[in-house]
Amino acid sequence: MNRPKHHIFVCTSSRINGTQRGFCCTKDSAAVARRFQEEIEERALEGEVTVTNTGCFGLCEKGPVVVVYPEGVWYGNVTPEDVETIMEQHIEGDEPVQSLMI
Amino acid sequence: MNRPKHHIFVCTSSRINGTQRGFCCTKDSAAVARRFQEEIEERALEGEVTVTNTGCFGLCEKGPVVVVYPEGVWYGNVTPEDVETIMEQHIEGDEPVQSLMI
């Protein structure tokens, strides 16, 4: 299988038991995940860049939390408006967005 | 913050809208995620190794799917019994388990 060049994980506070509770999901993290998916499609990066929603990363006070692998960059307090910046500078420009890193 | 040396992502079919539907969660993937957490605790690897549950990776026919970053190793058809092998050989021994890779 083809591995994505960048794999973006967005905490949407999904619990293993199927419920969705926690901090990130109250702070618009579902919209953050959806914006990443839209940006990937708009930039025709499907396959090369993947977004996956996750359960809690244990950093709720910094939520919404976004982690990008394989580079292992952790972002906090990410808003839907920040997504375009992350896509532009980090995903397409290979320069992680310092101001959002935790 | 401290970044984990290995970050294990387990699909538990969590949807962004809070429901849990799909293939992996019907195939014991919640038990796979819990076994990883238990193994991490038993081996005193908290902090160094993190497990996070996720939504769908789009490879349902190979589920339950487990992805380990930063090395980018993808495993399929993972059972709770396979978790000890992955922990022993891959996480502690740095040798990904070829027979489970997809």
TrEMBL record, chains A, B:
Pfam families in the record: 2Fe-2S_thioredx
SUPFAM superfamilies, per database record: Thioredoxin-like
GO terms assigned for molecular function: iron-sulfur cluster binding; metal ion binding
Gene3D superfamilies named in the record: Glutaredoxin
Keywords for this protein: Iron, Iron-sulfur, Metal-binding
InterPro entries referenced in this protein's UniProt entry, alphabetically: Fdxn_Clost-type, Thioredoxin-like_sf
Regions annotated as coiled coil: none
Listed NCBIfam families: fdxn_Clost
PANTHER family: NADH-QUINONE OXIDOREDUCTASE SUBUNIT F
Protein name: (2Fe-2S) ferredoxin domain-containing protein
Species assigned in the record: Caproicibacter fermentans
